[in-house]
Structure formats: C-alpha cells, structure tokens
Amino acid sequence: MCGDVRFRAARLPGRGRSAVAARPLAAGEVVLSEQPWAVVLLPEQECCDFSLQRGERLLWCRVTGLHFATREDQKAAADLYYKAELEAAEAGRKVRGTRGPPPWRDWPASLRLALRALQRGVKAAEQPWQGLESHWEELSEARQQQLEESAARCLDVLAAGLGLFGEEEVPEARQAFQAVANVRQTAQFLAAVDVNAFTVTDEELREVGLGLYIRAAVFNHAEEPNCLQSFVGRQLVIRTCRPVPEGEELCITYADLGQLSLRRRALLREHFHFDVPSSQEAEARDRILSTVLCGADSKKVQVGWDAECGLQGELAEGECAFARDFVRKVHNQWLRAKDARGTKVAQLQAVWLDATAGLDCRLGAGHSMRLALARELMDACVAQELWQEAIVFAREVSACSRLIYPPSWPMVSLSLARLAKLELFLGNFAAAIRCGEEALHGSGTGSPTKLCWEDRRVAAEEIQQIVAQARVEEEAMSRGYAAQEAPSSKQKALETGSTYLQSLD
C-alpha cells in the first residue's frame, strides 16, 4: 500500500487466514485496491474481455471469439492470456478440422478463470495462488475426481497454448509447462478458485465477470461486514463501511445482505465449507424479508422465499400453513407468467395484485418475493417503454431496499438514482431532485458518497446532471414558462445515464 499499510494478514482462531486493520480506519477509507491476477466474462456478457467495459462496437477475434473495446485492451490482454488462447484455438482447429469456437468457451466460468490464471502463471513463471485455501480434504471423492478430470482438460489447453503440440517444440515452453503439469495439484488449484474467486459487478451491480484477486482472498465473510467491495472495471476496491479500530478483523460479505439468512448460510456451507452464527441485524432483516400479512387485522406471519430455492419454510413458530400456501401460490403464478406468451407485463401485474392487495394474505412491504417481483416488473415495463407503470415499481424497489439494507449501502443509493431518473423523465421534478440528492448524499442516517459513488464516477456525474436538469425544469415551471433553451426533461433523461432505465441490478 505504498508505505501506508492499512491491513495485515494474520491467522485468527477459528477464522484461518484473515485481514486485520493495521491502524485505525475511517468510514469509507480504501483498504485495498487490486488488479486481478486473472478475470473472465460471465456467459452472454457483451463487454470487452479485458476491461469489462460495455460497448456497441467491440473488436471481434474470429479465432478465439473474444471481444475487445480497443486495440490497447487487446494488446494488454496479449501477454496475460490472449496469445496463449489464440495459439491453443489454432491448434484445436487443426485437430478438429473445423473453424468453430474453441471448446473452452463453453466451460464454466470458474474453469475458464483457472485456465487463464495458469496461462499467466506459466508466462510469468509465478504461482501466487499457492497460499489460497482449497478445502480439498473436505470435498467428496466424486468432486475430487471431477476436478481432476477438469484439471486434465485445462492442462491440455495450456500445453496447446504453449505450442507443445506443434511440429517445432520450444524447450523453454516445455520446461514452463512441466512446472505446473501436475493433475492433482492443478485440481486443488481449481478447488481454490471455486472458493476464492470474486464475482465482478459493473456500476449498476450487475454481475459481469469472475476474477481471482490474490491479496483480497484473505478477507473473510461476516454477517455484519465492516467492509464493502466494489469494482472499477476490472479493479477491485475494498472500503470500510464504518470506522474500524486497529486490530479488528476486516470482513466483507460473500452473499447479498438482501437474501434470507437461511439461503446465505446454505451458500456458505455448500460453497465455502463453513457456517456463521446469526446476528441480531440479520434476524431483523429476515423478519422484514419474510413477513406475510394475514387477515383483516394484518397478523404478521414469517414465511420466507428465495429466488433460487423457492419457498424457504417458516422462520418463526405459529400457524403458518395458510400463509405458506399463499406464498407458494404466488410463486407458481409468477413462474407461469414468466413462461406464458403474449403480454408479459399484464400477466406479471396480475400476479403483483394477487401478491400485494389480497384481503386474506398479502406480502409485507419488504418481503423478498415482493422486491424480486417489483424488480422484474420494472425491467419489463422499461423494456416496453411503459413509463408510468415503470415508476410505480421503481418506487417499490426503492422502498423495499431502504427497509432491508443498511442506509449507506450502495443498493439503496442505486435504487434512488434509478427512481430519480424516472421521476425526471415523467416531469416530477421535485421528486427527481429529492431522490437524486438522497442518492448522492444520504438521508442523514448514513452517507453513501464514498461507499457508492467514489468508485462510480460516471454514474455519479449522471445523477448530478439529472438533479441539475430537474432544478432547471422546476424553476422554469415556478415562473410559469418552459425552459426553452434547455433540452426537454424527457430528452435529457434519455441522453444522460441511459443504463438507469435498462436495469435494476
């Protein structure tokens, strides 16, 4: 950290390798800024393979199928992995006798990431991942065998990229390959990648890639983290989200705080091989995420739901059968609406009414299904340019997010920013100003400035423009005439920060 050491690695009882504050840290302070050892795009992402930036006119390599935003990005990728993948793809074409995409393009993201990490390691004669935890001994024999089979495939592509299957083998390449050509050790590395890889997100918190960050792997999970990770392109930034005294362990969250803790803890046990005790804050979020209101007296019953696992069962004692049947019914209606043809928005809106306006049962204001359904409806309405309907669900998403997440959490600020854009678009200038200002500066209970916007400069500038435009329009209206010199609010809203109308996450 250039002489300003903010954390140190240590082994803590019951925690293993950990990051510990080396000095007192203020809220919002950068603890770690790290470029990845390797990174890959997730499937169906239209981004530059190197910078992870979105673009309309990407350069396409016909041999590897990779896309790059600029020649500079292509050149930067060359020594890390691009040349090796180009060589391996050409060698594979000769063997297959076809010109299709290389087979590893269809591999799982974690396996493609491991291949790319090995390619760079061979090139640089380094293996910085040696200290990463793999939990190999905790894996079943079937899983170990599966990883060994994947490791063999990975080493074949690695050898092809080094030209070892060509007519003229280079001794140096053979020697570099032999340094890593151990199937069992490579399989253990694949296991370590599974445990230590970070999901890379863009400015809108949409998942775009998977990255291996060697130094950041020391940060453990906590149900109430004191640090938060974000990404500037491919660069990982970890900041404190509250003041941290010297000697305290620095932790991030490995899963969304907006998930039920049952789901989050199941993920930790299955994927990371550990469990964590619950916390008062997590239990309070669970109550919000699982509350179903029953009957005219709005009796609160806890029945959870998860987007991936469906019904999660009761989270509290009591007579929950009626509420459980209601949540299951809404879930099934939602699935049918997704699969149905025709007017998807109308069918989803019918599900929304059943879920939120029923007399016998209705989802609580922050129920996880209510939030997920509102997000999907906003996306669908925006896609069809149904702006009046979209803003209804944008308001729902913002309200739910503020109930679930800590006040300064980026999800809260981003939901307010999207809402501000729609409010401006529809001519609700005072509301656009209020939402934009709260997105940028918080509501007094927590400031999002550093946590959300410091690493999202482009998005922050767009919200500032939205607030400024709303002020111009509101002042013009108060004087009784339109702002004729400035673009209309709808035109300006379309020109600034269009991604806010394209996605909720």
UniProtKB/TrEMBL annotation:
PROSITE patterns: SET. GO terms for cellular component: nucleus. Residues 5-255 form the SET domain. Residues 486-505 have a biased composition (Polar residues). Residues 479-505 are annotated as: Disordered. It comes from Effrenium voratum. This is SET domain-containing protein. InterPro entries: H3K4_H4K5_MeTrfase, SET_dom, SET_dom_sf, TPR-like_helical_dom_sf. Pfam families: SET (PF00856).
